[in-house]
Amino acid sequence: MPILELNNITKHYKTVTALNNVSFSVPEGSVYGILGPNGSGKTTLLGIILDILKPSSGSFLLMGKPADAEIRKQVGTLLETPNFYHYLSGEKNLQIAAYIKGKGFNEIDNVLQKVNLYQRKQSKFSSYSLGMKQRLAIASCLLGDPQVLIFDEPTNGLDPNGIAEIRELIKRLAAEGKTIIMASHLLDEVEKVCTHVAIIKQGNLLTAGSVDEVLVTEEIIEVASDDLNKLETVLQQMGGFSSLKKQNGVLQLYFSNGNANTAAINQYCFQNNIALNHLQSKKKSLETKFLELTNKV
Amino acid sequence: MLHLLKLEWLKVKNYRAFWIFLALYIIGLFSINWIAYQLQGEIKKSGAPVNIFPYDFPAVYQTIAWVSSWLLYFPGMLMILVITNEYNYKTHRQNIIDGLTRQQFVIAKILFGLVIALLTTLSCFLIAVYFGSSYSSSFSLDGIAYIGYSFIQTLCYLFVAMILAVFMRRSGLAMAVFFLYGLVFEQLIGGLLDFKLLNDGTVRYYFPLEASDVLIPVTFGSSIVYKNAPGQTTLIITCLVYISLFVFLSLRKFETDDL
Questions:
Q1: Which segment of A6-15, A84-93, B56-65 scores lowest on mean pLDDT?
Q2: How far, in Å, CA of B146 to CA of B125, rounded?
Q3: Rounded to whole angstroms, how far apart are CA atoms A127 and A118?
Q4: B223 Cβ partners below 8 Å, 6+ apart?
Q5: B206, B215 contact by CB (below 8 A)
């Protein structure tokens, strides 16, 4: 059973269409990245799932049922910004969240420790730094040990250490078998933790599926030698690559995924009396892939 | 019900500004009556031929209710404050995300309003008993209905405040509209309708705040101030209709809108 199933979700605001017939489903146990540039509709999509926004048309199932308040209690959510009562302490704010979710207050210390906020639990929310606010929001998500977590830009405002910690936390949660739905414009973040990805641009779903499928990339091997022309001739004889480009004094060989073999190239060139002075294997970065995909439309 | 009230309690329990505001309001409620009470003391001492003393039983209930009505903008502001705070901090979203239904969110605020109204009414009753008993030795419950009217009036003010807060979302704007409407525009619109358009009509008595104001006329001379005013039953029904309407519209707005 998919954890989340979206069927043709459309959302119009007064002048713009924020989401246009978006459908995909999130399998149980996956870390599902929703990727898209700023303003692409990621938060709108999550807002609809959480009953903050009403879809113009379309429907969805959360844990196999039309979403209601009871199901929302079983999902840990951080949407857009940490939303807390400024005049209350971190601890008191979590009491309110726990109370609404119908969980006891005894877990609060525990989740605060998980995000390294325990020492400051008595301080007012308004005195927290942006990173601390974000940590409190993540702590709130963890209340009641939910099986499904929804994170919207979870590393917003965190310093490099904080980002690494959150990344570790997400990996740990995923390892425990929890399903994580995460919206982000940080590709690096998605690449490092996600198993699945959906890419949205201007409200349109460009592609969705497992990271391996969606981000099938070509492998590139760069080679160079003193005589590039001779090298090119030799390589053409060798074959096996899909294309060859000359760039900045090196030759780039494009291979379909899994077919690149640097050792074989090195050996072949050597046998043909060419000594390579440059040999490097590269993967096309997710960033390049992302830009390619989002610029197509 | 109790569950939602406890949620509101968690929200205001450690909210210092709220408690200071509430304390000042109740002190103000007592003080404004104390000033008028001193005035009555002076008149009594002078031995002037007055036959109704507003701070003696049984008139005291009506007097306190009437005097208190002037301060009802303050619990109204409190209502606006706690609702617009939620929009301000986006906690109205977070509450829903965490598992409250949209309906529960509004009902919690309605219950909060009821509690504030009960608190105001109880304060009025205690103040009335205190001043009433200070001069006269005999205790009386005659005229206590005015304390009940005061409750209805408080609800009218609180739910006007609520609907303004729900529709405007910003505290400053909602408070400005609340004061301007209550103090100026309701009178202006009612007056224009009655005296310019209808030539001495009584439409002005059917406005939400005015209807509840007329319910508790000044202790003496009401027939001059509120000429041709509808009867009490009509006024009470008018108030209840408005209260229900404001509750209904607030619920509908919050249940159907994007938050």
A1: B56-65
A2: 10
A3: 15
A4: none
A5: no
Whether residue A64 has pLDDT greater than 60: yes
The reported pLDDT for the residue numbered A127 is 95
- Residues A44-48 have a mean pLDDT of 93
Residue B75 CA to residue B161 CA, distance in Å, equals 9
**What ipTM was estimated for this complex?**
0.89
Contact B89 A97 (CB under 8 A): no
Rounded to 5 degrees, what angle do the CA atoms A44, A47, A53 make?
90
* Structure token digits, residue A139: 């702590």
Nearest Cα residue to A292 out of A194, A184, A218: A218
CA separation for the pair B201, B184 (Å, rounded): 19
The secondary element (H helix, E strand) that includes residue A62 is: strand A57-62
pLDDT digits (tens, 9 = 90+) for B101-125: 999 999 999 999 999 999 999 999 9
Residue whose entry in the numeric block shows the structure tokens 């005291």: B60
Count helices and strands (H / E) in chain B: 12, 0
Q: DSSP state, B205? A: G
Can you tell me the mean pLDDT for A183-198?
A: 81
Residues 187-246 of B with CB under 8 A from A: none
Tell me which chain B residues have a C-beta less than 8 angstroms from the C-beta of A70: 99
Q: Based on C-alpha coordinates, what's the Rg of chain A?
A: 24
Count of residues making up chain B? 259
> How many residues belong to chain A?
297
Cα–Cα distances (Å) from A213 to A197, A207, A209, in that order, read 9, 10, 6
CA separation for the pair A257, A200 (Å, rounded): 24
- Sheet containing strand A243-247, strands side by side: A243-247, A250-255, A219-225, A276-283
Looking at beta carbons, which residues of chain B come within 8 Å of A87?
A: 14-17
Nearest Cα residue in chain A from B15:
A87
Dist. CA B97–CA A97, nearest whole Å: 10
What mean pLDDT comes out for the span A47-76? 92
Closest CA of chain A from B178, distance in Å: 25
